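Lab notebook, bench 4. The sequencing result for the construct came back, and we need a structural model before the next group meeting so we can plan mutations. Quick request posted to the team channel:

Model the 3D structure of this chain.
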Amino acid sequence: MQVSVIIGSYRPGKCLYRCIKSLAKQTISPDEIIIGVDSIQDSQHIQTEPEIPCKFVASGKTGVSSARNAACQQAKGDILAFIDDDATAEPDWIEQVHHVFEDPSVSCAGGPVFPVFEQGSIPEQWYWIIGCTGMSKRPICSNMAIRRSDFVLLGGFPENLGRIKRNLTIGEETELILNLEAFNKKIVWEPDMVVHHWCPSHRTQLSYIISRAYNEGLGKAIIRKHHSLEQERLFLTHYLTNPDKYTVPVLLATGLGFIRGCIKGE
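Done. Here's the predicted structure in token form:
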């Protein structure tokens, strides 16, 4: 079994270097590390150590979904393991990926994404706002692995979703997971497959939280055209029965984004 690590990166910097360093310290080394970027110029100021061979692939487009798809097209591994450029993997991350996919029936796996706060924090139920898992057990691109054959079958990530520069419209991994479910593919949650996600201080500020929630709504409006949003309805019930200071602004912003997305999509 070969594992290709895929990193989608926008303006690679110190966080990407820390991510790559964590991949160099794995108990089982990845077979390759491919970094998807918008243009090859984005990678020119990033230098990696000789013992950490990495390949940069430019999509020629804008957006993290396009960058990941371009990287995946160059991958040789049976398994595609995704991690964000501002995340670091536990030393046994690749080992856990190998362990999970020893079961030939498994199509996709995910694990916990724990925040590393620069300053401040937010309650766990809102971790999705900062790109972490929290209550959810649905795999996200900060920590997800999928069989390459199934990824190809689905046509990769939808490029109308996913962060594009400072546009926070997301949901590309949600669409991918729901498409897998539609094909009755087996998706598992592995609690020992752990990643830590850097959370700079601005992501705990209300302005960012509201913007991110609004764009979540936009993304879900696109996804709802083809899939049921049953899990989102369950989360909504939880938020309404467990309110805190974020409940009203987050749900209002998400709802407005959803309505806006529905109107634009009609």
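The longest strand covers residues 3-8.
Will bring this to the meeting.
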